[in-house]
Automatic annotation (TrEMBL):
One of its GO terms (cellular component) is membrane. It comes from Emericellopsis atlantica. The keyword Membrane applies. The chain crosses the membrane at residues 12-33, 45-63, 99-116, 128-152, 172-195, 207-233. Residues 323-355 are annotated as: Disordered. Keywords: Membrane, Transmembrane, Transmembrane helix. This is Rhodopsin domain-containing protein. InterPro entries: Rhodopsin_dom_fungi (IPR049326), SAT4-like (IPR052337). It is found in: Membrane. Belongs to the SAT4 family.
Amino acid sequence: MANMYPPTTTLPVYSVLTAVAIVLTAVRFWTRIRYTKTNVGADDWFIFTGVVICCGCTAIQFYNALEGTGGQAVTDKDDAAQIVASKKADFVMVLIEKPAFGCIKLSLLFFYKRIFDTWNSFRKANMILIGVVIAWTIAFIVGDLAICGTKLHYVYLLDQSLARDHCGDKGFLLLMFAITSVMTDILVLGLPFFYIRRLQMPPQKKLATCLVFFLGFISTAAGMMRTIFLGISYPMGRMAWGYVSPPDQPTPLVLQVFNPTFWVMVEMFLGTWAANLPPLGPLLGAMGFREWVSSAYRKVSAISTSWSGTRTKTTEKSYATRAGDERNLTHQTSHSSLEAQDRPSADSWSWRDRW
């Protein structure tokens, strides 16, 4: 079967992903400095660092396409120079992707502090996640650097027998990183949804805010693709040191579809997009994004109300059900009153300033 990820396809995709990431980051800083006139903070510098590293990953893929195997598995047809170049590119890529992902996640967490830092429960959860992400990033960087002890050059030697004898299990390390990356994504991206509902905003604005944050899960989906590839290929021994794809053994279709190099690039850059979009909230609002969401919200609400009214006319309610509804209403009213005391008033801080 033909290669589904040739450089002629992947390099233009990487170029577009890189260009959009650079533009979004530039617009983010412009929005901070000129539009909302708020201070450039840790969240901005973390995403800036992450995008710079991602650009380095794009450069590595261009180098691999020109000098190496183009991100594909090594075969008997590749010459020695191509194999060594590919191994060097793969190792550097694996190494620097760790701080790239770490910076992207930390950018989101520090951005959350601008909006939700009013609540004590958020501050505790956010600080715990910041510590987890920092420790996670450092742990895997150290793991990559120490995988062959003091003989790091074994990683990219043409003869991989030394790596097999003296280095750790790189496939297991890659698989664990992919799994934990998805897990930390879910924790980081899911955190704000617990607090958006408590903000004193119209429902349609809450929906618009949720949509912006929800875009980050597209990056997580790409991470799941990579995890699927590693989860299948690792037990087959395809991640072992010195593995060469046998010419008479076709690569399983699922492994051709889920190319790890391609999906890690997509995951990284979609992560930078997702981290850049929330700070652009005020600018998106000025461009009519929230009005569009408000219109959609009103239409959905109208349909829901119409359906609910029709159902009420055709359904008999018992006395016990009415009594239960009254008790639930009393409980919800009491709960809403307590929650209103806990959340800040709309006049106590400016939503636009925090963004």
